[in-house]
Design a protein that fits this description.
Layout: E1 10-14, H1 36-45, E2 52-57, H2 61-78, E3 81-86, H3 90-99, E4 106-109, H4 112-120, H5 131-138, H6 142-148, E5 150-152, E6 158-160, E7 162-169, E8 172-175, H7 177-183, H8 191-203, H9 221-234, H10 237-244, H11 253-266, E9 301-302, E10 318-321, E11 333-343, H12 348-356, H13 360-367, H14 387-397, E12 401-404, H15 406-409, H16 412-427, H17 432-445
Helix pairs in contact: 1-2, 2-13, 5-6, 9-11, 9-16, 16-17
Amino acid sequence: MKTKLYAGVASIALASGAAFADGHQPFAIGDGDFNWDSYNVFADQYDLSGQTVEVTGPWTGLDAENVEKVLSYFASATGAQVKYSGSDSFEQDIVISARAGSAPNVAVFPQPGLAADLASQGLLTPLPDGSADWMRDNYAAGQSWVDLGTYPDKDGNDQYYGLFYKVDVKSLVWYSPEAFDEAGYDIPETMEDLKALTDQIVEEGGTPWCIGLGSGAATGWPATDWVEDMMLRTASPEDYDAWVANEMKFDDPKVIAAMEEFGYFARNDAYVDGGASAVANTDFRDSPAGLFSIPPKCYMHRQASFIPTFFPEDSEADFFYFPAYEGKDFGKPVLGAGTLWAITNASEASNALIDYLKTPIAHETWMALSGFLTPHKGVDTSLYANETNKALGDVLLNATTFRFDASDLMPGEIGAGAFWTGMVDYTTGKDAAEVAKGIQDRWDAIQ
């Protein structure tokens, strides 16, 4: 989702071996199937007694509680004190503190673009030597993650600044297993299969898709996710990157083609619940409800991993990977988002924390709680808190390319403005080339 809201502000201090409300860490050190060997090896390398590492990020509420628990194991392993503070105004706060010279040791960025801005001002410290090589070797689609964390420094030299830890997946199609079973539909393995299934559902009297773009002032953003996914399936990762950087213009034929791939589904009255005219006016939170009607009003809904929050109570749903074209050689790309951990005030303890985030145990302890996905190839995926998260994690592990949500990387006037409104215009009938030119004209105007 394009706009993330965080309620309240949390500030958590963790002493070595910190206790929690129930009197202990969530998983006793040494118990269960966790990779405690990675914990012990790390603990043998560091004695940080008397040192403090300050971490700030966007998480409050349950996520803040979970990161507190994860960081408590780092504190236990090293003897360091860890202080985490979370804020709903993180993006503004970190800029102010970094420029004032009072930044915490480590900052958790939801948007790589902000980290890149601070790196260009000399306000981030490159990660310890070997971090980029470690990422290439240990994360699925490792080079993608290296690229997402690499930015020019204040002298224009590329440096590796950010380790991604806690990832979200967007390349998903949700469906009702009961409805699929009753209709005899198989899960499509390719985009060609998905289009064939779409036609089959229509031929048998059903409606294949539920799509809604409504989101108040942010109306249109679900369509941008569709276009981004289609860019990754019809053009190369390098084309995607060039588009994000405005090196490939919005009215380039490849971008227009990706928009029209979205239109293939969204602008066909027979394909969409309520007809094409309903797409722009249906709230994205309400749009998947048709999956669970009897009989179904639709059979499929493309949306990110958060969407079950808006499913009807007690509904049963599953998902499959939004497939790539068999006839195009772009592998299995995954669109998503995530948080990037970067050093904003270097110290021995901050470097050690980054090293800790590379260990399987740092991932597995949050995997076993909630709201956490990882592309780390060294974790035990059976430790995910539920089967849904395990399957989502498998999508990440099977990815050949990962790319961050493009609109979140573009200037706000484009990614959270002209792109959103342009997709509404396109969905309601405007020509794709005309819409794309209008977005590019707006981008040119802010250069």
